[in-house]
DNA sequence: TTTTAAATAATAGTATTACTATCATTGGCA
DNA sequence: TGCCAATGATAGTAATACTATTATTTAAAA
């Protein structure tokens, strides 16, 4: 892809931050290094103190950007969903055939992290890893209903909606287009995780980040579900 | 079901506990109340100290049973998987037709919590809620590979294996029987959660714990995937 | 160029968490 | 009766998840 500034396309709920991290050098450093550190340490071991030390700032300063590390996680995951939505829109804009669109959708998110990144301070490949390993913790919390009512998960919903429309275009009789869409994403991430850590729970293999088998599997599931 | 002692059928990896909680009154209280409290507080807010206070014991004593709360979570989730496996085996033992078996499998776990519980100190219905809300945290951790190598997730793998065999029996050409199985479980739990908390991410509705729509959806997906 | 406001740093402090350690008590069985 | 295993009581520690205060730097307006 060309190096258009995707960040102008990324709109994240303002409730997710206290001070826009994209708008300052330090803020971008927070985004950048929090992705790296959560991926490396895992969400539980990751702390604002460690992050502060890494970027040579202080805990208190990070708290001025994000209310707590859980909201930061939602921010990062939302970023990812928005990034995938952007890719899908970009890659399908010249396609009118719905079946072809679905194929592109699957390809887009399976290979999302391989696309030439356009935001210097976000490593999309590592962000994808993070979403695979820690993403579901963003919405499995006791505050889910309150957070949802504040619109914190809009990006994921929009993505699901986008895909569900294509599903309905392909097969108007398919009864569960939203479930199809979310299942596609959850399944994709789950099986990358399983292939890496719990191989007995899946049939695919992923070596050296080769996700080709995953793409084949998702298309196989999709085709059968939609009667193609 | 009759009140046969299912606990004799439940075999959990000995590495999951330091002292068998099923073998003492206090241990059973730990199981019982940890289920209730994790469901109520969420896993993050749940602590051994709160649990100790609830059962009128001490933190140190609980640490004599479980190494930490994360291992306790794996223990409880393993219990759930083992319980579902048991139900599936029981309910399918008189059925030879594979398609019918799959239908029973789906019915068994969708309605698992409605079966008359046979272990007095485990509320299976609440345990199912816990698995839906917190279950994935049991295997999304930085220690996953070490824990997996110790056999901590055997119960889930066995369950997946059980279902994958039926899938292969129905359609020997289906290329991803394990992915089918795990996806069935993950999807089931996800969509119960979505229906309750993020309804825009699913097509089904669940009011008053009526999971009938979920069963219909899972059968719909299963039939299409297996070409029935 | 100075003034000033905003951002960040430095530092400290608090309640809670996730443990570990030690010693006392109790209740059953040998 | 005595002993031992299980549990209780108590204390302590390092780390976490914050909040508060004051000092310093920086960047932009006057």
Quick synopsis:
Chain A is mostly helical.
Count the beta strands of chain A.
0
CATH overall fold name of chain A: Tetracycline Repressor, domain 2
Give the termini separation of chain A: 30 Å
What is the approximate shape of chain A?
A: globular
Radius of gyration of chain A: 18 Å
- Which chains make the largest contact? A-B, 47 and 46 residues
Oligomer: homodimer
| Secondary-structure arrangement, i.e. CATH architecture of chain A | Orthogonal Bundle
Give the overall average pLDDT of chain A. Answer: 94
CATH class of chain A equals Mainly Alpha
| Domains of chain A, number | 1
Unreliable segments of chain A (pLDDT under 50, ≥5 consecutive)? Answer: 1-5
Tally of individual helices of chain A: 10
Largest sheet of chain A: none
Describe the structure.
- The structure is a homodimer of 228-residue chains.
- With 228 residues, chain A is an all-alpha fold.
- Chain A has one domain (6-13, 74-226): Tetracycline Repressor, domain 2 (Orthogonal Bundle).
- The first copy, chain A, has ten helices and no strands.
- Chain A has helices at 25-41, 48-54, 59-65, 69-92, 98-110, 124-134, 144-149, 154-170, 177-197, 212-226.
- The longest helix of chain A is centred in the middle third of the chain and has 24 residues, at 69-92.
- The two termini of chain A are 30 Å apart.
- In chain A, 45% of the residues are buried.
- Mean pLDDT of chain A is 94; it is low at 1-5.
- The structure holds a DNA duplex (30 and 30 nucleotides).
């Amino acid at each position: 892809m060309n190096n258009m500034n995707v960040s102008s396309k990324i709109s994240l709920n303002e409730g997710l931050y206290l001070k826009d991290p994209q708008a300052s050098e330090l803020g971008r450093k927070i985004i950048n290094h929090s992705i790296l550190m959560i991926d490396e340490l895992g969400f539980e071991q990751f702390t604002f103190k460690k992050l502060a030390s890494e970027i040579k700032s202080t805990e208190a300063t990070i708290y001025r950007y994000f209310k707590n590390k859980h909201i930061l996680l939602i921010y990062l995951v939302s970023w990812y969903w928005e990034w995938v939505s952007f890719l899908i829109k970009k890659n399908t804009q010249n396609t009118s055939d719905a079946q072809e669109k679905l194929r592109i959708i699957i390809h887009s998110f399976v290979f999302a992290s391989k696309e030439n990144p356009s935001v210097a301070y976000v490593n999309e490949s590592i962000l994808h890893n993070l979403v695979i390993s820690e993403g579901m913790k963003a919405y499995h919390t006791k505050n889910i209903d309150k957070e949802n009512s504040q619109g914190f998960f809009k990006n994921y919903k929009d993505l699901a909606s986008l895909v569900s429309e294509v599903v309905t275009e392909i097969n108007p009789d398919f009864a569960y287009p939203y479930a199809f869409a979310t299942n596609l994403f959850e399944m994709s991430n789950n099986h990358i995780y399983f292939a890496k850590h719990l191989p007995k729970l899946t049939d695919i293999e992923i070596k050296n980040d080769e996700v080709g088998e995953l793409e084949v599997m998702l298309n196989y599931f999709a085709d059968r579900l939609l009667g193609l």
